[in-house]
Amino acid sequence: MISCAQRLRNSMTDHERLIWYALRGWREQGFHFRRQAPIGRYIVDFVCHRYRLVIEIDGGQHGWSRNRLKDIRRDTWLRRQGYEVLRVWNVDVRENLDGVLEGIHAAVSDRRRRQEQDTRSR
Predict the structure, then answer these.
(1) CA separation for the pair 108, 51 (Å, rounded)
(2) Is the pLDDT at 110 greater than 60, yes or no?
(3) What are phi and psi of 49, to 5 degrees?
(4) pTM of the full predicted structure?
(5) Residue 28 to residues 24, 25, 94, 108, 122: CA-CA distances in angstroms?
(6) For residues 39 and 15, what is the distance between their CA atoms, to the nearest angstrom?
(7) Residue 29 lies in domain
(8) What's the CA gap between 31 and 10, in Å, rounded?
């Protein structure tokens, strides 16, 4: 699994690379993302383990019915592990990168806020 993840890191798509360049700059804000990271039997495109957020960058093949079913099973399993899954289409990365990044930032910020509230209420 680890060697497969390493291969995927070395062969990221252009869309994944654009997202990665932005995400790695967010460490100063406390958002540490890993790319092509194994979680259970899956390798996710990006994950922030601290705030339990997975980001998947999907190409057209994810629209095929067979692949949609696989994605649903995978997302369900990840959610059962406590992760939120955010799926982004390649076309959105290409045509609206700023909007995609704003959406990702809002999602991870919300996860952080909820985690901090949970911690305070204990």
Answers:
(1) 7
(2) yes
(3) -65, -40
(4) 0.86
(5) 9, 7, 25, 14, 27
(6) 21
(7) 2-121
(8) 22
Count of domains in the chain? 1
Asked if 101 contacts 22 with a C-beta cutoff of 8 angstroms, the reply is yes
Helices marked H in 1-122: 2-10, 14-23, 65-80, 90-95, 97-121
**In this predicted model, what pLDDT tens digit does every residue of 51-103 receive, in sequence order?**
999 999 987 554 546 678 888 999 999 999 999 999 999 999 999 999 999 99
pLDDT tens digit string along 3-62? Answer: 654 555 556 888 999 999 999 999 999 999 999 999 999 999 999 999 999 999 987 554
Q: Is 108 helix (H, G, I), strand (E, B) or coil?
A: helix
Q: Which of 46, 57, 42 is nearest to 23 (CA)?
A: 46
CATH number of the domain at 67, please. Answer: 3.40.960.10
Side chain identity at 36, as an amino acid letter?
Q
Residue 122 CA to residue 99 CA, distance in Å, equals 35
Q: Strand 53-58 and strand 84-89: pairing?
A: parallel
